[in-house]
Specification:
With about 290 residues, this protein is of the alpha/beta class. The chain is built from 8 helices and 9 strands. Helix 3 packs across helix 4. The chain is globular. The termini are far apart.
């Protein structure tokens, strides 16, 4: 009798394992249905290094529930082979849908991220008909979006919000202390690339650069020099339709949570939904 009982238990355990594997495979292969949303402009949220598709959940929640900017959200995570994992779906009633985007290789270079982002955006165009998008990127997520902005890929980037993004890398000696800068002590290869390819940016692009400054004596957000986050000043104003800077000062302007501060979320909402211009606007917010 014991032998039969053990055999039954082994078979039952094997069935449970098989079912779990099948459910896992189904989740990995899940694709949301195609819906015609070609008249909508989605908001893409991208994390920084070490983050994931949930890193900007707080911003997504407030944009949806407090500001009513969007009514539906979708999560996408792409791996280094370009395979996309989806969570959730969009319906025909989606308004300004939020796409929370993640990279499985979350320590890869922003340039690599931009290549995987391109694959994902092509999927979104095919699936929903999007031709334009607005992008918000924290740290290296802002850099990935900037690389993407120089591409001719559709959906095109209409608005870019870069929060604490290290355009001229992290070395304070490369960036200096004077926030009214018109040039850098030393331009890194990445910065040289952006300057060289600035003409590739769409003339209709609108840009908001948000930087953190812990204090006047410590012009960094604890990781990224303030000037590095504002180095977009040296290549965006001559190319983009609008360029705006916002500096947050104080102990709350720390890099890891700069994208979650009430001011960052409020400023992002204003820029995405309220800021309108028919002519070039350059607004530099330094002391």
């Amino acid at each position: 009798m014991k032998k039969y009982f053990i055999t039954i238990m082994i078979l039952l355990f094997g069935t449970l394992i098989l079912a779990a594997c099948q459910n896992s495979d189904e989740a990995d292969n899940y694709e949301p249905p195609k819906v015609d949303l070609k008249d909508q402009i989605p908001i893409i949220l991208i994390h920084g290094s070490g983050g994931n598709a949930s890193s900007l959940d707080k911003m997504a929640d407030q944009l949806m529930n407090e500001y009513r900017s969007s009514n539906e959200a979708l999560t996408m995570t792409v791996n280094s082979e370009g395979k996309i994992k989806f969570e959730g779906k969009l319906t025909k009633d989606a308004k300004r849908p939020i796409i929370k985007f993640g990279f499985e290789q979350n320590q890869a270079t922003p340039d690599d991220w931009s290549k995987w982002l391109k694959i994902a955006m092509e999927d979104l165009k095919s699936r929903y008909g999007f031709t334009q998008m607005d992008g918000v990127g924290h740290s290296n997520g802002g850099l990935a979006l900037t690389y993407y902005a120089g591409d001719k890929t559709v959906p095109t980037l209409r608005k870019l919000v870069a929060i604490g993004s290290p355009f001229n890398d992290l070395d304070p000696n490369d960036n200096g202390m004077d926030l009214s800068f018109k040039k850098l002590p030393n331009s890194t290869p990445q910065m040289d690339y952006f300057i060289k390819n600035q003409t590739e940016v769409s003339p209709d692009l609108e840009v908001l650069a948000i930087a953190g400054e812990l204090s006047e004596d410590n012009p960094t957000d604890g990781i990224v020099p303030t000037i590095s986050s504002l180095a977009t000043r040296l290549f965006m104003p001559g190319s983009a339709k609008a360029y705006i800077e916002d500096i947050q000062v104080g102990e709350d302007a720390v890099h890891q949570t700069l994208h979650e501060t009430p001011k960052s979320i409020e400023k992002t909402y204003w820029f995405l939904e309220k800021f309108k211009t028919d002519e070039t606007v350059i607004q530099l917010d330094y002391k």
